[in-house]
Design goal:
Helix content is 19%, strand content 34%. The chain is α/β, with parallel strands linked by helices. The protein has a four-stranded mixed sheet with strand order 1-4-3-2, covered by helices on one side. A four-stranded mixed sheet has the order 5-8-7-6, with helices on one face.
């Protein structure tokens, strides 16, 4: 028997509304504001991602360990890697590691506008 039930992932960031809208453009869904410092994205299928204002937020350093290391990353499957890459870059994502070894590796790494790493993975 489980001890707990999954509720959401919360991302610290400097601008929660704009980051919520970035992920809504990537994943679809509905952005809801709960306060000046907290926004939720309800993703199709039932998942929820929250965005919380964190003054002084510093993005993690990818892929180093230690101070400012990657705290987590999100993986998203996509049907067409090149099209998805073009779209996330147009939304403001930053490429971190696009060398997917001619498709053999199966993923490419980006940072969202607040610096959190995420991967586009072949479906």
């Amino acid at each position: 028997m489980a001890i707990a039930a999954y509720q959401l992932v919360a991302l610290d960031c400097p601008e929660p509304e704009s980051l919520a809208r970035f992920y809504a453009a990537v994943l679809g869904g509905e952005v809801r504001q709960y306060s000046e410092v907290w926004y939720d994205l309800y993703v199709p299928g039932g998942a929820r991602i929250a965005f919380q204002r964190a003054p002084g937020h510093r993005p993690p350093s990818w892929p180093q360990a230690g101070h400012d290391s990657q705290q987590f990353h999100l993986d998203f499957t996509v049907p067409d890697m090149d099209t998805a890459q073009e779209q996330v870059l147009a939304l403001g994502a930053v490429p971190l590691d696009l060398d997917d070894n001619d498709g053999r590796r199966g993923f490419r790494v980006f940072a969202d506008p607040a610096g959190h790493p995420f991967c586009l993975c072949r479906a």
